[in-house]
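Internal tracking record. Fields below are filled automatically when a chain is submitted to the structure queue. Please do not edit lines marked as system-generated. If the sequence contains nonstandard residues, flag them in the REMARKS field before resubmitting.
Queue: standard
Priority: normal
Entity type: single polypeptide chain
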Amino acid sequence: MRCTPKFLTLVLLFIANTPFMAQSTPRVEHPDPVVYEIYSTVLSTYQHSDRTRSKELVIRGETLMSLGAFINTVAPKRTCLSVGEEQREFVGQAVDDYVRVNQRKWRLDRKFKLDMSYTLFDPQRVTSIWGEAQWRQFYVDYPESKGIIDLSAIGFNADKTVAIFSVGRWCGPLCGEGGHQFLQKKDGKWIPFQWKGEACHWIS
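SYSTEM-GENERATED OUTPUT FOLLOWS
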């Protein structure tokens, strides 16, 4: 078959705009080591809805771009976070940065400091876990876990005293939960603060 320049142009435009291209985008490690300090702080105390603690955490090996997604291919253009007027000056920059940094995936490395064992799960394997049989095999391979943990990239304010990101967990075909985390740095430690605005939580 002979391809005309017009046909080739259309093909290239189609390929460039398919979600697959986002999946194949090279991932790079997040350049800021502070993110692992924050992730570790939250995951060390992370409680699931059934109030049981995992003995092992299985963490997707890349940041999740879109809250509540299982297939990590589409980056959101905006966020469901709505800042209350009284907190706008305090958290507004962090919200904007959260949207910006989650336009791409960041590779996660073994830099977490946790008091339990953890595994960085190959992102390419996540898409192969879609039914009951695959999830049963997952728990054979990781019997001490409670599913797959997802972490978004972290948005900061200018002086990095406010951090916003999301944490989620998939535990089966129709089993999962997640939502946003809001932290501020006080006396050298990252602690939660009360969000006075609209935020999102998902459950399946």
